[in-house]
Amino acid sequence: MTVARIRPTLPVKDILSFVFRIFARKGAAGQEKIVSQFETLFAARYGLPPGVCFSKARVAFYFLLKNIGLKSGGEVLISAVHVADFVNMIRLAGFKPVVVDLAPGAYTIDYDDLERKTTDKSALMLITHLSGYATDMDRILKISAHYNIPVIEDCSQAVSSQYGGRPLGTFGKAAIFSLSLLKPVCTLSGGMVLSHDNELLDRLRRETVKLAPPLKIPLIAEAVKNIIIRMAVSPVLFHWMTFPLMRLVMPLGDYFSKYQKTNKTVILRKSIPPDFLVKFIWQQAVIGLSQLATVENREKERTEYGIYLYDRLRAHPCISLPPTIKGSLNSFWLFPILCKDADKLKRFLAGYGIDSSKFLLSLLCAEEAFKEYSYECESAKYVKEHTLFIPMYSGLTRDQLDYTVQMVGEYRG
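RESULT FIELD:
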């Protein structure tokens, strides 16, 4: 038996239809209404007014910073493990990024470190729910209220997670969501802003009017990438070709992760790239509407599978699992396990046909481009170095889940 590490959510037929629509000379009737419908239905999952779509989640965050009513020059608190380009978005919006460590052995922010680093210079908190693990929002909001600074939630990996029976993404001033590869709602690329604040949403919507249409080639390239990955992890091809090739080149590196990763280069940008400052188009919204039609069932299955794995692996003597918070429902966008030697466990599982991956997000304190900020994040460094993500997504069979549990259970690292 072989088990792929991932499975994209976009059906090939939807991707091909997207490509056809991109090249079609005649557009759809009511194109703007299609985007509005997607924004409305996405937000309805959270009981919020219609959201606003941008080309990327990081771009959505940039425009949030520019329109939320903050004086420039303040500090923005951000998790130590993140998409590195968010540091650039903070800088280019006129603020200073301040990195907050993760709690030891956890996927949630270190609340004590957050309190230490929150000062009268702080302008905003960006709270990221890594891998679908819910943050203690009561404690976050208490700190926020004490210093009178707004909270933005990054729910890119927590589309269906809850805290205290309430969806993540509804606690702060606003929330951002990624709509990129492997996300539960994928539109090839894109980001969404949700908020209770209609005036803020109106300001953001006016920003989108100024943006240029996107070039076709980058969107087509993303569509092709999705198709290639989808084919590569299809059961037959993965078993007989993809996985044997991956095992063969494993000593040289994880080339699949390198292809999967969109943030290959980390630099201090002088400006936002023009291809970021483009509209979210109706062809993407059509895909998004198709994804929304199935997301509830897919997320329910994913969450159930995550709980199933968590319950069966939590007592393993050689690994540990990030702790969950009482009263939370975690959607497990990825399933991380912590072990002494993640590379050794990866090789062990590969020997039994189970693919896995290391951390793809940047450790901000370790990026050479950001050394001028002198970030420190020892707990996050440990988490990144010792994490291995094992297969866990909707579409897995119970046999595959049980096989994964069995083989991880036999590991003695």
